[in-house]
Amino acid sequence: MPRQGEADDFVRMDDVVKIFGDTVAVKSVSLSVRRHEIFALLGSSGCGKSTLLRMLAGFEEPTSGRIILDDEDITALPPHRRPVNMMFQSYALFPHLTVAENVAFGLEEERRPRSEIRERVFAALAMFDMGAFGARKPHQLSGGQRQRVALARALVKNPKILLLDEPLGALDKKLRERAQLELVALRERVGITFVMVTHDQEEAMSMASRIALMRDGALCQVGTPRELYDAPQSRFAADFFGVANLFGGRVTEAGAAVDCAEARATLAVADACTQGADVTVMLRPEQIALSKHAPAAPNVLTGTLGNVVFLGNAYVCHVVLDSGKAVQARLSPADMAKLGALATGDRVHVSWEPSAARVLTS
């Protein structure tokens, strides 16, 4: 059993509101961040996620509500008195200092021994392949290189909480994936709590232990990546995470059937739902089977094959149903091989089991 405070509520926001003039940027947000986890604030631009991060850092003060860190109310505490470090989108590097001096700056302010500073700066730069650039100035680096320096500077002090605002956006794919792994490994090695802001759902899902999805300043859903992908609580959440085939309809038989005009069919479902309720049936592309001949399945829809996209480990098949609605099916190379030759314009059938679909009520 974990001790009190070891797992839950290391950081807690209680009914936090932030208003700028006539704009309510954050609307009564309450959430908790657990000790040593990577927690992601996810959403599109303008949803309030960066404002929430800045309030946690102390750069913005809540209009109302409280922020608790390790059982201490830090709502009115200035940034320099919080055990928090933040990496900004703008990098905020000192132009007159070298790369190594930028990374060392915080350690020098703490009057750390010179030998310790050199060792920690070298390790931080090496983590991001920047060891050979220590003598350069920020203006001599590319945008991606400046971002790596900013991340190294944020990590070098080993803060209790590291706040990351779109931290990996300027990195190329390969280096971004390596940086993601390094951040996860760093959390496990030194026990830092991460709170990151991103609009990239793949980045959030690959790094975060839990995700808070935001929309228009409010929380939509908080959960693990698997929970938000497999069990979204709204049409917005379902559509935000990955690709979702969405069918609007009305429940005709509680917990069993949804009449769907978009599909010109009654769809069999397994989720509990109220008869007469307007709902959305969500189906992920990988849960759909594709066939040339109509299978004996509870849910079968017929359409015309559009384009087929090969992704290496999967084929994405676009199908236009006879009702006119477009859907996607994602097949493995082995399943695609079993179908044999397929061409644009071929008549095909899409099918799935009732348990594969999720019924959304909002």
How would you summarize this macromolecular structure in one to three sentences?
Helices cover 25% and strands 33% of the residues.
Task: Please tell me about this protein's structure.
- The protein is an alpha+beta fold and 362 residues long.
- The protein has helices at residues 49-57, 99-109, 114-127, 143-156, 173-190, 201-207, 225-230, 235-240, 333-339; strands spanning 11-20, 23-33, 38-42, 64-69, 72-73, 84-87, 161-165, 193-198, 210-215, 218-223, 245-253, 257-260, 265-268, 278-283, 289-291, 299-310, 315-321, 326-331, 347-352, 358-360.
- The strands form four sheets. The chain has a six-stranded mixed sheet, sandwiched between helices.
- Strand 1 (11-20) and strand 2 form a beta hairpin.
- Helix 2 packs across helix 3 (114-127).
- It is globular.
